Amino acid sequence: MKLNCLITNNDAQMADVIEKYIEQTPSLQLIGRYTNAAESLKATKENHIDLIFLNTDLTDLSGLEFATMLDKAIKVIFTTNTKDYAVESYKVSALDYLVAPISYEDFLSSIQKALDFFHGSTNIGSITSDRFFLVKSEYKMIRVDLDDITYIEGLKDYVKIHFKGKREPIVSLINMRRLDDLFPRPEFMRVHRSYIAHMTTIDNFAKAHLTYGTAHVPISDTYRATVVKYAENHMLV
Known about the structure:
The chain is α/β, with parallel strands linked by helices. The protein has helices at 12-24, 37-46, 63-69, 86-91, 104-119, 124-130, 176-182, 221-233; strands spanning 3-8, 28-34, 51-54, 75-80, 96-99, 132-137, 140-145, 149-155, 158-163, 170-172, 188-192, 195-198, 204-205, 209-212, 215-218.
């Protein structure tokens, strides 16, 4: 089954890229391309739409505001030139947030999230609602409670899950990107190519790193703006 898509983007160059990628992807069907929220919203009423590739800055309305007007069955992937709204995007249940220049590899990663959501091939819902998951480690299935995690460290094809208190870390054969896709956001946030941080268990926040007890988790330039925005949203002035 193909996913019916709309492009809603007033940046012609970016919209061209997304349209090209959709044409290259057999699981997607482009229904329409629009530059403003009004026409796009009308199209969602007249067609069965599964997915919208949405810019955060439209001419008549912000993409974030527009997302709140959509039927809850329609999912959004933000495509934009700025990281400024990454945290806010997850508040409107966006599937993903892509910042230009957008590679086809990143596009496909977002599409996999969409396919997983619509076809029910992942455990995202169960993990989010039940607040735990199981991982294989040392020939056993080990329960991991989300609330116990401090951060996850990527080790090539493995991940090392770190915990509060004195519990020993767990090493498991899991793809880092796959694990990142399963965690609820922005509670869990990618802060570095090799680290996923549990934002609600941070002890201290600095410009270059997060602190959990005596452990320092680095924040890379790629993710710094999103992390800083998250911190600002939780700051008492």
